[in-house]
Amino acid sequence: MRAAWVLLAALAALAAYYVYLPLPGTVSDPWKLMLMDATFRAVQQTCHLIHYLRLSHHLIVLNYLIYTFDKLKYVSDNNVNITDAVFDGVEVRVFEPPAKGDERLKRSVIYIHGGGWALASARTSLYNNLCRITAESLNAVVVSVEYRLVPEVCFPEQFYDALRATKHFLQPDVLAKYSVDPSRIAISGDSAGGNLAAAVCQQLSKDEHLIIRPKLQALIYPVLQAFDFNTPSYQQNMNMPVLPRYVMISYWIDYFNGNYDLAHSLLINNHTALDVGQALSFRGRLNWTSLLPSSFKKNYKPVIQTTGKAEIIQQIPALLDVRAVPLLAENETLQLQPKTYILTCENDVLRDDGVMYAKRLENAGVEVTLDHFDDCFHGCMIFTVWPTDFSAGVQTRNSYIKWLDENL
């Protein structure tokens, strides 16, 4: 009996060691975040083991587990009509609130979900719930884009899926079918979806044949660059739950169908060293020492290699392709962007991506709202349903919807 108690105590200690992470004191619901992160890590490690054994791709297994778990927490709503459709070959989910009184036309939000271009779905409960609440709160038609995922396809296919679906919806006859006001349309997305939303918005702004354009863009902790993995937020939050730095680098490699052997070189910015000629013209567009306020720069120092590996850019030219890294767009493109909302979280490696994009847009003459949360973490806005319900999720979602309500 005594041996059993000793073993139990040892297992409990090991579990506590696995779960515990030193988190900033400002993070909301810290123990719940630790538990969720420990679950994520355990699942990811299992999926990587399956991948290593060559039984299946780890992202396919991870998505299977997400969908299996998701079936247990589906949330329906009789106040919003939810239908699936196909827009120019791309699957979408459309959320339509009932007509109110003599209202003829509704505003609309095109939403692109996150998940590292590889995970989740417009049909999962987390995004289904977010889009349903957005549609109901704004009395707006929400179109959630179901773009294809890694490893089925890689860049630029996700971008083209999002672009095709958006351009199809912006056609006058399609807007009329859904009773949408063509002058009150926003394009939005979170994380990798924010990346796609920003890239699509840039592409639309340069399309001279487009009749109808988005009025707004709303980007939620967007991932916008793969040029510098040592911005202050990448250094500060390199081991933060949900999206540590090495995981974000892995998502980029998967998105570009690259080699994992390049991960360390990317981490230390070998791909954008001073001797990498292809990167020189972009350096000024991502100079965080001038784009970030001192409150974000803190005491962090730039990591700029003198000698790096130019062959990385040769192998993965998409690292400098603005369709994949919208933060590197030229000023002439940024000047064409619509009124913009960018939500950032202090405890997120991607914080500075959003802050720098806000500053570059502002410098280009675009009206920008930067909505920063000191106590929140990456991905929090979709975590509002038990058992992954966080006060940070409700807080950020309400702020996002409030801005759309006031500006759309």
The CATH architecture can be given as 3-Layer(aba) Sandwich
Instruction: Please count the beta strands (DSSP E, at least 2 residues each).
Output: 10
CATH superfamily: Alpha/Beta hydrolase fold, catalytic domain
What's the Cα radius of gyration? 21 Å
Structural class: alpha/beta
In the CATH scheme, what's the topology name? Rossmann fold
- Which parts are unreliable, with pLDDT below 50 for 5 consecutive residues or more? 6-17
Query: What is the H/E string?
Result: HHHEEEHEHHEHEHHHHHHHHEHEEEH
Question: For the report, how would you describe the main beta sheet?
Answer: 8 strands, mixed
Strand order of the largest sheet: 1-2-4-3-5-6-7-8
Mean of residue pLDDT values: 90
Count of the domains: 1
Q: What is the CATH domain class? A: Alpha Beta
What is the 3D form? globular
Beta-strand percent range: 15-25%
SSE blueprint and pairings:
Elements: H1 2-19, H2 30-52, H3 58-70, E1 81-87, E2 90-96, E3 106-112, H4 125-138, E4 140-146, H5 157-169, H6 172-177, E5 180-190, H7 192-205, E6 216-220, H8 232-236, H9 245-255, H10 263-267, H11 277-280, H12 288-291, H13 294-297, H14 310-315, H15 331-334, E7 339-347, H16 351-363, E8 368-377, E9 384-385, E10 388-389, H17 391-407
Parallel strand pairs: 3-4, 3-5, 5-6, 6-7, 7-8
Antiparallel strand pairs: 1-2, 2-4, 9-10
Helix pairs in contact: 2-3, 4-17, 5-7
GO cellular component, one term: plasma membrane
Pfam families: Abhydrolase_3
Protein name: Neutral cholesterol ester hydrolase 1
